[in-house]
TrEMBL record:
Gene3D superfamilies found in the cross-reference section: Multidrug efflux transporter AcrB transmembrane domain (1.20.1640.10)
Domain of life: Bacteria
Matches recorded under Pfam families: ACR_tran
Transmembrane region(s): 34-57, 84-103, 115-139
Keywords: Membrane, Transmembrane, Transmembrane helix
Protein name: Multidrug resistance protein MdtC
InterPro entries: Acrflvin-R
């Protein structure tokens, strides 16, 4: 997202008479302490989502105690499907909460905007954890099952 903010054509769209480039104050952002604080916040949120998914995956595997590859996959799909909503809600609330920060122009916005850009961009990509974490967990459990045989 930091790279996109520096690109000349990014968000150069008029919507309801307002240019999105002006609304979101699109300009080049230098790597500052505020940007790194934004990255730390992003890593914390992404890790939290991973822990939420992994915890339920572990509980599902323990409850079903599968003995074959198909059983593992069924337990992982069941657990992953049950944790989609909490992870989506975390992402949605974070993205919605950052919209006022990205559009602010008052006092302090020069610090808050560089902090919000990595979090906003990362949260859009962070949605992949809902697919990557269950897939890697399933792969790890299948490898462990294969080694036991």
């Amino acid at each position: 997202m930091l790279w996109l903010y520096a690109q000349p054509g990014f968000l150069d769209i008029n919507l309801f008479g307002a240019n999105l480039r002006d609304l979101f104050q699109v300009r080049e952002v230098a790597l500052s302490t505020a940007v790194w604080v934004g990255f730390i916040a992003l890593f914390g949120i992404a890790t939290d989502d991973g822990v939420v998914i992994t915890t339920y995956l572990k509980q599902s595997i323990e409850k079903n105690s599968p003995s074959d590859k198909e059983g593992i996959r069924k337990a992982v799909v069941e657990a992953g499907a049950r944790r989609v909503r909490p992870c989506l809600m975390t992402t949605a609330t974070t993205l919605l909460a950052l919209l006022p920060v990205l559009t602010s122009t008052g006092r302090g916005s020069d610090i808050m905007l560089p902090m919000a850009i990595p979090v906003f961009g990362g949260m859009t990509i962070e949605l992949l954890t809902m697919f990557v974490v269950p897939t890697l967990y399933c792969w790890q459990k299948e490898l462990r099952l294969k080694r036991q045989k």
